[in-house]
Amino acid sequence: MFNQHYCKILVLATFVFAASQSVACSRPVATSTSTSANTTAREGDEKSVEEDILFYVNKFRRTKGLKPLEISNVISIEARDHSKSMATGRRNFGHDGFESRVDDISKKLGTVRAAAENVAYGNLSAEAVVDGWIKSPGHRKNMLGDFNLIGIGTARGKGNIVYFTQIFINKPAATAKK
């Protein structure tokens, strides 16, 4: 059984040094109530949802002939912290603090050529949130961008709503640390 839920999605164009742009949009995203791999995120399984998001993002990239992104714990910590901040209301839903997250990542990983971020919230499965990002031109552009590392973080907020953050990084291969 599928129900239609609306997921507010903000788009951040690829961030290169100090240039960024934000655009707002809304779109319906289907969610599943089954107990398969497409189940919505529940308490305690956020890590599994994050792994599933990586799977669906890389599956999509492969269909376009792109290399898979490697998960980075350093970047995922930043993504989780941002999702937690939105879920608890410490930050509004969106990209506030993106430059600071990229600075923190750069301090730990070294030179970062480019970075981008996708966020979403809703009662969504990993597959549904990735599908919503694919259908949104700005999010899609980020997922298909010239990146080699990704961080993914989820957090549950009021009303059992899940907040999702993806951070994409282009890190020179010779110096890439995860």
TrEMBL record:
InterPro entries: CAP_dom, CAP_sf. Residues 1-24 form the signal peptide. Residues 56-168 form the SCP domain. It holds the Pfam family CAP. CDD domains: CAP_bacterial (cd05379). Keywords: Signal. Transmembrane segments: none annotated. PANTHER family: SCP DOMAIN-CONTAINING PROTEIN. This is CAP domain-containing protein. It comes from Chitinophaga barathri.
